[in-house]
Design a protein that fits this description.
Chain B: It comes from Methanoculleus methanifontis. The complex is a heterodimer of chains A (124) and B (213). Chain A is built from 4 helices and 8 strands; from the N terminus they run E-H-H-E-H-E-E-H-E-E-E-E. Classes of the chains: A alpha+beta (124), B alpha/beta (213).
């Protein structure tokens, strides 16, 4: 029987991400990506989580194996400050839709303010 | 009288040592090959007469964070600041040893360099979270500034509430476009320089004294 070549795409909801700690999120993403899958996060990572993701990705890189990640997202948006936010003090910011994949399989073709175009290959 | 003066100086010295504020650590961050070490070398050479590290066309030449202490920079306006310059490895989310092989480096050395480069990036991220007080963010002004790593790093720096000066480097090259960098990061001051040729570095020094002072 002929095998159909393809790429698995995992879409992770904001609710699921909200239930996880920073390290759980990073591990979930990296384990998935290291298996050759593409991960799409409904809500992206906070800056501190992104910083740790880079650090841990670096630790996982191995010669002739995993060579790192390709990641695309929109810049963090400052949320509109409602009455409650003003009352509680502090500005909330929103992380946004994010796609993460293995560096050797995911390429960004075009990135505009409101459109990210990427290309995925199944060859590992 | 002399005794009194000497005692006064001694006490003043002791008080200064006791309340001395730690020197401000300014990290030079950016993607690989943006010219971070070239700028670090220029700053250190201009104000101390020394160098920080070697530079190369091959990406990830800097694979360790290097700190040069107590550099006093004086702007044209006469303002001075004393800082530690922290030169960091170029930040990226991917490193493949084959990248080095393409520059004619043999496999064994390329694998070693790639491993050191990954450690260097992790180290740079750690410094940013723990030990940096201000950032000079270097970009090659001939390249697209909207690359994810830049958006991500500037976001990380902003979230830590660190002051950041963006340097549009390599303005001596014909296809340099500092305007593109200004449009990508309108929320921060952008200074166009050539770290290699020394174009406009005086303005950078002036900005550093007022911005990090």
């Amino acid at each position: 029987m002929e095998m159909i070549q393809g790429v698995q795409i995992d879409l992770i909801s904001a609710e699921r991400l909200d239930r996880l700690t920073a390290m759980e999120k990073i591990r979930l993403i990296l384990d998935d990506v290291m298996e050759g899958n593409i991960v799409i996060l409904e809500k992206g990572l906070a800056p501190d989580e992104q910083s740790k993701l880079i650090e841990i990705t670096m630790r996982e890189i191995a010669p002739d194996g995993f060579s790192g990640i390709e990641m695309e997202t929109y810049p963090i948006k400052d949320a509109q400050n409602g009455f409650l936010a003003k009352l509680l003090g502090g500005k909330r910011s929103e992380t946004r839709l994010t796609v993460i994949g293995p560096a050797n399989q995911l390429r960004t073709l075009k990135k505009e303010k409101d459109l990210i175009s990427a290309w995925v290959s199944s060859s590992r | 009288m002399t005794f009194l003066v000497r005692t006064k100086r001694k006490i003043s010295g002791l008080l200064k040592a006791l309340f001395k504020k730690r020197t401000c650590r300014i990290g030079i961050y950016g993607p690989p090959n943006a010219g971070k070490t070239t700028l670090a070398n220029r700053i250190v050479r201009d104000w101390v007469g020394d160098a920080v590290g070697p530079v190369s066309e091959v990406p990830h030449e800097t694979r360790r964070v290097r700190r040069k202490e107590d550099i006093t920079i004086t702007g044209q306006n006469g303002n001075s600041i004393t800082i530690d310059i922290v030169d960091t490895p170029g930040v990226t989310t991917k490193i493949d040893y084959n990248e080095f092989v393409e520059y004619g480096i043999d496999k064994e050395e390329a694998v070693k360099r790639a491993r050191e480069a990954t450690e260097g990036v992790a180290e740079a991220m750690h410094w940013l979270r723990e030990d940096i007080d201000g950032v000079v963010y270097m970009l090659d002004s001939t390249l697209d500034p909207f690359q994810q790593v830049n958006i991500m790093l500037v976001g990380i720096i902003e979230s830590r509430k660190l002051p950041v000066l963006i340097v549009a480097n390599k303005n001596d090259l014909p296809d340099a476009s500092p305007a593109r960098i200004k449009s990508a990061f309108p929320q921060h001051p952008v200074i166009a320089i050539s770290g290699l040729e020394g174009n406009n570095v005086e303005e950078l020094y002036e900005q550093m004294t007022s911005y990090f002072g």
